[in-house]
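Supplementary Note 3. Input sequence used for the single-chain structure prediction.
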Amino acid sequence: MTPIHITLAILVAFIWGVNFTYIAWALESFPPLMLTAMRFFFTAIPLVLFLKPPTFNRTLFVYAIGTFVLQYAFVFTAMHLGASAGLTALLLQMQIFITVLLAFLILGEPVSRKQIVGMIVGLLGLGVIALNLGGDMPLVGFICILIAAIGWSFGNIASKQASKQATIKATQQGTNISMVSPTNSKDQSSNKSSALSALALVVWGGLIACVILTLSSVIFETEAWTLATFTQASSKSWLSLGFIVYVSTLIGFGLWAHLLAQNTASKVMPFALLVPVFGMAASVLFTGEVLTWWKMLSMVLILFGLILANVKIGLKSRRKPVST
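The predicted structure, written as discrete structure tokens, is reproduced below.
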């Protein structure tokens, strides 16, 4: 990964980590399914009017349902049921290991032994949390977050497949002018196309998710659909929704999809291990979550797993030149 891509990956991890605190604040006024539906309504509107839609195929629907519907409906529900922001951020990182496994099984992306060791160390950190269920993390919340992690993992694979399809299409369209265009211009055009296709994927995927989530909320949260729910919501909850929509979703997922399009999943996904660190820190600072010894131990293990995974990437690039 280039230094710019590494910086962007860390930035996304920070945004997503702090986002859990904003979710907790938004849930003070809105039920979980309604909040999730509102998130993706404002994600899609009005940008769908300006962004060309991606190809409507199975990949787009898997991305929308996995990344947006399953992940956030169950994460918001888990936090509504009592899961703390910090622990939710930590346990959701099960998706990293599931994504790398799916990338290996479905896409054939390689994973080395040293990177596997790093993933296992990170998994041990998550195991420490699992052994301390109760209080900040009820069992039903734990199950909800596992379902969310699986959904996000399938969404990551679908995102990469959709981005590849968009890149191939853009490359084919640019073939006619490649003979007269400078190399730098071609690269800039490719990067711009990749970024726009990533944003379009998030926006149009969000529109699909909004329809599904709104129907689900009307069915399961009927009593919440009153004018009072919106007029009596606190300013803090509305501002939190704004952060969730425009910073976490549009910027965060747009950048993440772009990074997955430019790099293998096994290189990008380890950076998501930073999300629980930022998430726990924000939760302790702003929501009063208690930082215990076992939470510290889990974060240390997760960080060490991330370091191992990144060292593996660097050594591999120096020792093993790319072959054809």
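The chain has one domain: 3-170+188-317. Residues 68 and 96 are 16 Å apart (CA to CA).
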